[in-house]
Amino acid sequence: MIDKISTLGGYIHEYQKSVENPEAFWSRIAESFFWRKKWDKVLDWDFSEARINWFVNGKMNITENIFERHLFTRADQPAIIWEPNHPNDEHRVLSYRELFNEIQKFANVLINLGIQKGDRIAIYMPMIPELAIAMLACARIGAIHSIVFAGFSANSLADRIIDAEARLVITSDGGFRGNKIIPIKDIVDEAIENCPTVEKVIVVQRTNSDITFKPDRDIWWHKCMTNAKKENKAETMDAEDTLFILYTSGSTDKPKGIVHTCGGYMVYSAYTFKNVFQYSDGDQFFCSADIGWITGHSYIVYGPLLNGATSLMFEGIPTFPDAGRYWDIVRKYKIAQFYTAPTAIRSLMSMGQEYVENKDLSSLKVLGTVGEPINEEAWHWYHDHVGKNRCPIVDTWWQTETGGITISPIAGIIPTKPSFATLPQPGIQPVIVDGDGKELSGKSVEGNLCIKFPWPGMLRTIWGDHERFKKTYFSTFKNLYFSGDGVKRDEDGYYRILGRVDDVINVSGHRMGTAEVENAINEHPLVNESAVVGFPHPIKGQGIYAFVVCGSLSTGGEEGIKTSIRKGVTKIIGAIAKPDKIQIVNGLPKTRSGKIMRRILRKIAQGDYSNFGDISTLLDTSVVDEIIQGILKEG
Ligand code: PRX
């Protein structure tokens, strides 16, 4: 088992060891896992070539480290508690033994379908236990799962299936979200029309919705599981074999397939889970993310289960049947650690205290946040009303790319400060550099957040595009991993994340490339061009502001066009990318070389109509005046 850091002195000591001799440090942690063959070398790396290999030639399987390793002591302990969308429906508890049985059976189903180690499987599912079973069964046989958040459109799903050349899609007939039923299978059907690599679709029955079932292609989950063989021996995986691909947005219009590997991800997700949340045996852990995002991968499934923890998986939304749902779940299952996004906190905060005030939250020990900066007001509300002034808040900074938490307090051990992610986890060596890549050492500095030494959980490549991997993360600043975030280190040496410095915006904790949204807007037949920037939004953190140039206006006028643009973006990407504000303009501010000056648009979107800095390269200043006049006219 992984030892927990238990004092501030212990953290300082561990951190120092992890920097002085990272290989010895990680080797010691990795030894607490089950390896079929031990590694020959702990680390082989070169950031200039974007080469990172951990636990070289080590052989293992992550599911063996979840099940076989824990079965002697935890067979009857709940592994996953599943809370359904509707509070009156039956919840489900899967013990380690039960979950293991399901995974072995489903692994055999996959094998019977001819799925082999290294094949890619796309999973597009609501938050039901079969989602976790499917992903772990993939890991069991060495197939690579690519989970796509079920809020993405058919078009986005198809892009991801095509990029990964997935042979199989696992899905459900529909999904419950509050009062709505989401037609999941219809979306999959539409997506697959353009995906020649997909041979079969496995469908879980969840909503009993009317669906089109293609007997030569579609297979019911419950039918293929009925006669599946019960035992399955885990495939031997190399530590550096791919465990999963997870797509995320970048500065271009094409999402990146972030690749994580078996050995390093296992060690890192498990280590950070145990330490950051200070998980103890018997605790029930609740992470409210969707498994379609990295937070769900690492802190609903892999991190907790590798530690033999009990993880709560919630199908629904925080406001159904009312805004007290999370607190009802905390009370019902006596949750010890609760992990959510600042957006959720802000949204619940705006609905009033009465939903949280009279709930028994005495089981809570630790609160966590992730995905975006947390403002002080939300931090205090969370601390006072949910944590009742006694639970430390871990504001965890990390990314799809980092695999696990990288800068964060250790609960109850590293003193917290509102809106600060505080200090690096052991093994993480952050550096702050200026625009020229010069390291800004010391305290009270601000700049670009980089990491100068590899850690086991970091991404290894971008699926199918190693050059892009190298260019995106290792060429902006020489020999450093560049996160894309701005950061400040204060007088105490604490880190405060300032947000993205690239063309990525963070809407409700969801990462979005401005280029992706622009492309979707530009698909509209009346749109000539567009520019998308983020702006401060009281609930979402950042909202999407689109400046759009139209060739002509349709009969519906400006409002008609705005509605159809929103519809178009929802169809092409998904509802999460729908612009909050659309302004129809005559032109965009451009440099003489034709580059859009986003800096100016960002200022305007923030409501700052001056302080544009150097505008000498601007081709036509009247464009800016026109945009501002347009806003003022609308009031
Ligand atoms: O900008 C940072 C922000 O979310 C980005 C990563 O998004 P994604 O890959 O979707 O992963 C989110 C969940 C790990 C980062 O580049 N971010 C994440 N956590 C924080 C944060 N910003 C401020 N504070 C955080 N705690």
From TrEMBL:
Q: What is its EC number?
A: 6.2.1.1
Q: Which SUPFAM superfamilies match?
A: Acetyl-CoA synthetase-like
Q: Where is the AMP-binding enzyme C-terminal domain?
A: 516-595
Fetch the Pfam families from UniProt. Answer: ACAS_N, AMP-binding, AMP-binding_C
Q: Does the keyword Electron transport apply?
A: no
The record places domain AMP-dependent synthetase/ligase at 67-454
Could you identify this protein by its name? Acetate--CoA ligase
Lineage here is:
Bacteria, Pseudomonadati, Bacteroidota, Bacteroidia, Marinilabiliales
